[in-house]
Amino acid sequence: MNVTIIVCTYNRAGSLERTLESLAAMAVPRSIEWEVLVIDNNSSDGTRAACERFCLRWPDKFRYIFEQHQGLSHARNTGIREARGEVVAFTDDDITVDVAWLQQLTASLTDGRMVGAGGRIVPDRPFAPPTWLAADALELGGVLPFFDLGEKPSLLTRPPYGANMAYRKDAFQKYGLFRTDLGRLGDSLISSEDAEFGLRLLRAGEFLQYEPKAIVFHAISEDRLRKTYFLAWWFGLGRSSVRLAGPRRNIWGIPRPLLSIARAAFRLVRKALGWVLSLRADQRFFFKLQVWMLAGCILESYRQLLRGDVKTYNSQTAGAAS
Questions:
Q1: Is the pLDDT of residue 259 over 90?
Q2: CA-CA-CA-CA torsion for 12, 82, 4, 151, nearest 10 degrees?
Q3: DSSP 220-254
Q4: Residues in Cβ contact with 101 at an 8 Å cutoff, skipping those fewer than 6 apart
Q5: Together in a domain, 81 and 129
């Protein structure tokens, strides 16, 4: 089996080097031919130089590609087009992988029954949630991107996360690429392109496997443990959810974005009351996060209304990979 590992990066030369070192140190059986494809999405730091050092040390394993079109989905889609492998695996530039990661992640993709797989994402150091954070606030992945469904392999009923997932390349040829109206872009925290693709496959009746022994370790940066980051992420979550829903029919001649704004505004008032009236600090902040999320929903719905609720599912990303 041939596997291409795609690592998209933007101005993280230091952590990227640790990621690439862990990939170079993997124990991979001879039955798996593998390569690492680094997609540099307009970095202005030492990313290119760091990648070139790996390309010189392992010219048959590491490749570097510069993608000028800004955005994580654009970078991932470029990686898919350039991939030589029949299986495409993804991880992030602030990850270190377990020595057996690639073998474990791709083990179920050899016979064609499974079209994709996802593994565990765990913190790279002992971690305790901040005291101001309610447990409910961690149920949505991404803000602290951990993914752990236990010790037993199983079929996935929810999509894996982009830091630890793999798909057969023909899945992109059949179902299209990542949506470019989703995914990180600059300072925007709009995301969910990985979740949307996984849901696309699950809704089509495809099978995805959870591989608990395919483990990656995610760095916990200090900025992700600040309230300002959580608020920004939940605001982006609200905007992402509207884009995920896509254009919908009007009801009784009333534009759906307008109805969405009214519904979100009503919910926002209720959550704001919870924010003000809750006695526990962690619950107050959880309500505040939901207020920010609903504000994101309102903003994105308003933008859809101004555009006439145009189709947001980009035809470029809906098309097949070449």
A1: no
A2: 70
A3: --GGGGSHHHHHHHHHHHHHHHHHHH-----BTTB
A4: 26, 119, 164, 214, 215, 216
A5: yes
Please give the structure tokens belonging to residue 26: 């993997």
Q: How far apart are CA 254 and CA 28, in angstroms?
A: 57
Same domain, 262 and 127: no
> Three-state SS for 85?
coil
Helical spans, DSSP H, in 25-100:
47-57, 72-82
- What is the domain range of residue 298? 227-306
- pLDDT tens track for 208-252: 999 999 999 998 888 888 999 999 999 999 999 998 887 666 665
The span from the CA of 42 to the CA of 70, in Å, is 7
Q: How far apart are CA 102 and CA 7, in angstroms?
A: 13
Can you point out the beta strands (E) in 92-180?
95-97, 116-123, 154-155, 165-168
Question: Hey, is 175 helix, strand or coil?
Answer: helix
Residues 91 and 234 in one domain: no
- The residues, ordered by sequence, that sit 6+ positions from 152 with a Cβ below 8 Å of its Cβ are 212
Q: Is residue 25 included in any domain, yes or no? A: yes
pLDDT digits 0-9 by tens, 138-193: 766 567 878 999 999 999 999 999 999 999 999 999 999 999 999 988 778 888 99
pTM: predicted TM-score of the whole model, two decimal places: 0.89
